[in-house]
Amino acid sequence: MKAPSPRGLALALLLEVERGGRSQLLLDRALDRVGWPEREKAYVTHLVYGVLRRLRLLDHLLEPHLEAPKKLPPEVRWILRLGAFEWLCGKPGHARVSPWVEEAKRRYPPLAGLVNAVLRRLGPREAPECVRLSLPDWLCEAWRGFFGEVGFAEGFNEPAPLFVTAYRPLDLRPGPIPDSYVWEGPKADFPALGLQPQNPASLFAAQLLKPKPGEKVLDLCGGAGLKAFYLAAKGARVVSYDQNRKRQEAGARTARRLGLEVAYRTQDLRVPLSERAGKVLLDAPCTGTGTLRAHPELRYRLRPEDPGEMAALQLALLETAARATEEGGVLVYAVCSLTEAEGEGVARTFLERHPEFRPEPIACPLPTLREGLGTYVAPREGLDGFYYLRLRRVDSRA
């Protein structure tokens, strides 16, 4: 993927996203290959994430100036969106318009005049809240109905600091919870410093287990094992399960780099485990609606039926987790999603089927959207949205 400038690279990446690519993965790969200054790499990231996060609003702003936007070549539509985003950010006219006119000349010369005219005519336009937040109507209305408001979603459209979990003493700016910090240096320093990128909302799911040295902990759907790293650093004997062997192999390499001991076992977790423990963590697969800041294109790909379908899988995985939890033990269920179906809905159904489990209160230091049967964390100040449910097994019923 060759691009003569940060703007050209941003355009190329957005075209890849439209073809089904993942913005975060595409950005990481592309920026690793270019020898540009960090300032230029940061501008590519700003453009790609900014346009995807504000896409619905940008199309709304462009709409009065285009007769048939869907008939335009994809390259030209993205050029217009990128130019509109720079307008939204307050970039001056000439510095904003001319570069995108040049990009249009390189790709579709006959439409360069259209790009010039449209970008110069842009102006404020009132937008419904769901459009202003660039959310699909079904998700916006579901959040408004469940949480009582949807303004919290503005947090998904704002950049976040780079949060890290530190596995050795360092003088870093503290994050919102213990062991979480804000990193302001180059990522290349991570291996030497024992740092692991991790959102505090993700880290808190592991902290809910309150692991003690020597305790056995099962980390289910652990992926590469980010939460397992924290549990192992606290002295727990951690067994991390997942069905993706490649992710586990990558996690094992990271664990060795951090000097941590984690046992990895590959298994489909809809099948019962052959072991049990007093503490079990299930960070289940989900729709990811709490991660729309880092994965902005996801909001346009999800379907209204997806939360319900994921909830069925989550309940099956919770059955496995429940069988693996010893009497008197703790089971933590977590998802990086903010839907009712995947949070309280799963909790209600599970507890109806399993009277041997009791929910326990959660003292959450993070900003919340809703508390009661579990806790929903708000995506504010760079946090991912999360749902947590902490359960205690009070008898040995099978």
Task: Give me the secondary-structure topology.
Blueprint (H helix, E strand, L loop, with lengths): L5 H13 L4 H11 L4 H16 L1 H8 L11 H15 L4 H15 L4 H10 L7 H4 L4 H11 L14 E5 L6 E2 L5 E4 L6 H4 L1 E3 L2 H8 L8 E5 L5 H8 L3 E6 L2 H14 L3 E5 L10 E7 L14 H4 L4 H18 L1 E11 L5 H13 L3 E4 L7 E5 L1 E4 L8 E8 L5
Parallel strand pairs: 5-6, 5-8, 6-7, 8-9
Antiparallel strand pairs: 1-3, 1-4, 2-3, 9-13, 10-13, 11-12, 12-13
CATH-assigned homologous superfamily of the largest domain: Vaccinia Virus protein VP39
**How many distinct domains?**
2
- Structural class comes to alpha/beta
Q: Give the class-level CATH name of the largest domain.
A: Alpha Beta
Find the CATH topology of the largest domain.
Rossmann fold
Q: Terminal Cα separation, in Å?
A: 55 Å
Strand/helix succession: HHHHHHHHHEEEHEHEHEHEEHHEHEEEE
| Main sheet record | 9 strands, mixed
Radius of gyration: 23 Å
User: How confident overall, as mean pLDDT?
Assistant: 95
**Helical proportion, percent range:** 40-55%
CATH architectural grouping of the largest domain: 3-Layer(aba) Sandwich
How many distinct helices? 16
Q: Approximately how much beta-strand content do the residues carry?
A: 15-25%
Shape: globular
Question: Using DSSP, what is the number of strands?
Answer: 13
